User: Fold these one by one.
Assistant:
Number 1:
Amino acid sequence: MEEEMYILIAKSLNREADAAEQQQLEDWLNEDIANSDIYENMKAVWQETDTLFNKPEFDVTAAWENVASETIHKTTEKKTITFRKWITISSAVAALLLIVFAIKVFTTEDWISVTADKKMMVVNLPDNSKVRLEAGSTLKYPKTFSKEHRNVSLQGKAFFDIIHKEEQPFTVDANTVDVSVLGTSFYVTTDDAKATVTVTTGKVAMMPKDHSDKIILTPGNKGIFKDHKFNVVSDTNFVYYQQGLLEFKGVSFANALSTIAAVTNSVISMDKNLSNTVQQQLIEISFRDQQLEKMLDEICLITNTRWKKDKEQYIIYGR
């Protein structure tokens, strides 16, 4: 494979490829299954360098010399570099690491990492867009956005209210997917297994990391990406993501719990011995920017019930 294709792959992985370059890469991937293997090897190298650069004390010069010693300075030997037991790349791909390294070291911007430890916090981005970051979530963004794009990354849950800029798309790296907009508001949850996006205003594009597929979401849509597949459902609670407000007036206890489970991406069930009278009692209660367990504390208080966490689900019992 020619060097220009290596560079094109690196630009795509670094989210710097334009539409024409991305299409050129996709055409090349479709030409031969071997090309996909090369792409996956390079992607693995790219992910390994993410780990390297995230170390608290990273010496660029020393690292460059280390990489060069294994590639440029040993071209007379057949050499393999093993990053993990399941990733072994040939010396040809090892040479590619120099390209990856150069792009990552010399184009990396200064990034800020913000973690909402115990409560929700509002983050103002360099373009004055706002992010409501939920407790336990981490947002990373550059001190200054480039002229061509606005890229951030999220681990956890956050509501984004993005200023419209036609010439400067906004992209969220949400672990398993990329979420791209020009200007809109939307809610993102992400973990290692699944990503969900709920749109409150505007349009949002949701794509897997290799950009092999894409869905467009509009207000009230929730896009779910799991097991390499997309699913789109209607979400009537999308205002909650925008305002952080849940109000129940004359709603059954059972229905209120279903809504809370939906907006928090949680599993909440009622004990089989809980009477139908308790389940169907009508309640009035409101929550604003409260965590799931705090909401359960309050709703169980007014319904004379209690909750218990069992692995990944919450079970409601009678008192």
Number 2:
Amino acid sequence: MIKYKCIRNNCFENILLNTPKFWSYFEDLAEKYQGFIFGIQGVLFDGINVFPAAIDCLEKLRVAEKTVSLISNTVQRSPLLVETLRAKGIPLSLYQYIVTAGDETYRHLRDKNDPWHNALGDTCYFIGSTEDHLLMEKLPYHHTNHIEEADFILVAGTDEWDKNLEDYFPDLDVGITLCLPLICANPDQYCYIGQEKFICPGAFATYYQKKGGEVFYHGKPYISIFNQILKKLTVIKRDKILFIGDSLATDIMGANRIDLDSLLVCSPVTFEELKLPLNAQQILSLSEISEMIGADNPKPTHMMRSLKW
């Protein structure tokens, strides 16, 4: 059995090395850091409703004059996401900086500052909804509905909400045969809107790559998106910045790659990654959830069930 010691009655720290510290209240963890980078979905809201206790944490950080940034794998560019968050009850006054996978995708396609994007042709086969097409607004690319005419594929989502990944296999297989490069505008494999699961562009990209296709990912856990935030936080020492997320595969892995302390907040995505039932929050302790992370997954520095001050 693993033994724990109590710290301030609300943090339980595993006495073994390289294991997360467990916290009940964000207040006691927050005092150790000056800068905070929050994931959004699964941390601040569930895709439908905000978590009031999490918003209270943002408000408390503002009062404490801490620096708060938001980072998201959404394909929405940040100006649109700011308005979406405002409508859901997360005003701009609660954070200073924001960056999205959509921003990263747009910036690379616009600037073509690296050899991979510079080598792309001008004709794009786009997979995504009508709203997702805003990602390409004002970019100098032609769109085609015939994949055989394309120079590259960009996946931003499903074009219809009820489609399954298998519905796209025929087009993706053609792309692989034609050796078309694929841009993944959101590395998430899936997301939860409330309790309902939806596929994300990362699932397309994984299929494409496993079949031999060439893929470029924009967003967490890749370093480029984190660097866009860290450029704004240069006055804060790296060991005084905390990353908060709910996904081991994107959030915690990304934080580990750039040597940031991280806080894993449990959500349906967490439990899906660990192959646990979605009600694991009610039936398992944090220590039991931590043990399920195992040796093959990236390790968070800290863990909480959910954000509360």
Number 3:
Amino acid sequence: MPQLINVDIDTVAEPDVVFALHDHPLHLIDLQRKKDAIELFGLSKAFSCFACHQVRHRFVRYCSSCDVRCCQQCFNDAHQQQMALIQQTVASQISVIEEKQRQFTATSTTSHLVGMSLPPVMAACLAGDFPAVREIVEKNEFSGTLDLEALCEHAAYKGRTVLGLAAGSGHRKIVMLLLSRGARATACDNLGMTPLMHASYGGHVEVVDELLFGGGLDIDQASFSGYTALLFASSAGHAACVQRLIAAGASTALRTPNGRTALIAASLNGHKAAVEILLLTLKPSEVNAIDFEGYSALDAAISRGFAGVESLLRHSPNQ
């Protein structure tokens, strides 16, 4: 298999952005369909994959700058390895943060939470210190000195309000308190993500419930990356959040910028429980929908080797 490139974890925006085989974009070309592309790049209808050295006749991942060609299977395998590496790195970072958060106490100064130098109320929202948040809010309630819409300046949470910080960290009681004090559930951070999107992506179903109960949300609002709350929950495999969002009226027909539906996103990442929930609500046309590269949810499951998801899709009454 090809060697993986080094990835700066801070630059990873979406789960399917990093392509591990090559440091230039590898465009997907169907040699049996895209005659213009074949003529433009001087490709033939057969090629030797630079990774496995097998002769292939249809789908090629091609870099016109370096004349690199690889087959779809090798591309998927290396991409999956790259994502596993990223997830291990993220998990390691999260475990360090969580350990430091456990050391946080109500008597300690919240401004030094995990070395972030955050304002006390923001640090308390991240740590889940409800008593500290309540004390700060109540102390400043009548003086008007506390701005609940102030934006976090730390790079990891750029542009989030206190509600966005608490929602993304899964702290339901703090979310309830902030909503009761008028914090805006529609506020977006620098990625265009709302508190509902952060809670959905993190799998914090109780927080999702509170935000939906508060009302006033556009449940199908998309972030700057084109993901809705349902697409975030589906791609991360949080079945309970998927169920809540659909019950609240989230559209299952909306797509990511590369044309993936919630079902395709869940299938691509092997999230069987989320796929099962989605199949209960989708029409046959939605189950069989294809993305902009021509792949359906079933194709995605097969290409990644997720047999359980593949079986669900093959035997779905809506298939």
